[in-house]
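forwarding from the other thread:

> can someone predict this with flavin-adenine dinucleotide?

sure thing
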Amino acid sequence: LSPIHVIGGGLAGSEAAWQIAQAGVPVVIHEMRGVPGVKTDAHHTDGLAELVCSNSFRSDDWEHNAVGLLHAEMRALGSIIMASGDVNQVPAGGALAVDREAFSRTVTDRLHAHPLVTVVREEIAGLPPEEWDSVIVASGPLTSPALAEAILSLSGEEALSFFDAIAPIVHADSIDFDIAWRQSRYDKEGPGGDAAAYVNCPMDKAQYEAFIDALLDGPKAEFKEWENVPYFDGCLPIEVMAERGRETLRHGPMKPVGLTNPRDPLVKSYAIVQLRQDNALGTLFNMVGFQTKLKHGAQAEVFRMIPGLQNAQFARLGGLHRNTYLNSPQLLDRQLRMKAMPRLRFAGQVTGVEGYVESAATGLLAGRLAAAERLGKPLDAPAAHTAIGALVEHITGGHLTGSKFQPMNINYGLLPPLDAPKIDEAGVKIPLKERGRAKKRLMSLRALRELEAWRGAA
Ligand code: FAD
């Protein structure tokens, strides 16, 4: 068998290579770190699967947390990232946190020791050679410029999306519709052709002033050297707008015009925060124009000051950093192959997933899909009822037509919904406030059943 080539030995590339080798197919990892003078702006070592920032894989609760479910699915599929995380755990409550150096060393050693894995330290500075008939590009958010440009020219896109700021995303079922209402500005059609596509949260003057104070006083993330990117016009963080004048937001993303509060039609709101549907299922809404560099810890507190969002649960918080990713819904098929050049598969953050675990999960799938293809037994991606399948669905088509594709952590809003159960397995009534939790457990059980069936059929 000729080898499959993996570009990038990060979270996704290491996992992809492991899955390929475990399937009995030879694999070559091409990693540029380790070449003298070649580096990224965030990595500090030559180790494979280096964690560039936090040391946490987040919650390990598979029953009630979507990333915990992703852990469980990956463990079931023999993930090297999860196995290496598990043996290098550090105490972190319900989260899976790891000793980052020991973790990277374990992954590196296990890959080097595998007889079917070769690691070459080199930068792939353009399209991979034509004789490489199966390639997984897992070069991450800091893909080297030469490779990024080559992919760009191939994709026919104007630019690889340059991700400078993100706005928070809220779970729809945590919005208080006794306060918020649905209406598009001037009743114009929103994304999806819906004239009531937006959710509106009204503020009076006192609420607005208190909110501006909280924004100005809240702790902000500091820029590191690698974050030295200019702000894009029309994409300024809200705190930067507020610093320019207390009224700026009221004339920008929080302008109250063209909207009527059905509960108080004669009273004009002083300011209005709008949320826009974010996924095809309608389970997630993003806060329009609310890109922010408030520290994550402060965001939930400040944004819960917005009437209607007082109990908001966030599927993703806002942030500001450099991030190169593909417009995957346009460019990739459900096999994660580039439609314009199917010998190239993509995995990791570059596909538009967000996070260590999500990156590794897409690497796992890309590795399995590529190995199956090489072995002449092509495989479909698992159904969207699984966390891994839901991620693939998000990056290859689950977002709303007409909306800008944005990276996403795994969350239950990406999986097809279930009605919250009213009684438990023993027939006992579940109290109202516990039903959301019970629903997550049912969705997790459904996902693991589905994954097992997929694994069995593979
Ligand atoms: P990476 O892990 O970055 O791996 C890509 C690899 O490809 C790198 O080793 C790179 O050297 C190599 N490479 C690039 N170009 C080439 C080339 N042309 N030839 C050969 N090799 C190449 N996620 C979290 O869950 N928690 C966090 O705390 C977190 N912090 C982050 C901080 C920063 C600064 C950034 C940029 C991202 C952060 N992320 C975080 C997001 C994401 O989870 C990580 O970036 C994650 O490492 C992505 O995995 P990956 O495999 O896609 O890319």
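Confidence is low (pLDDT under 50) at residues 225-230. thats all i got for now
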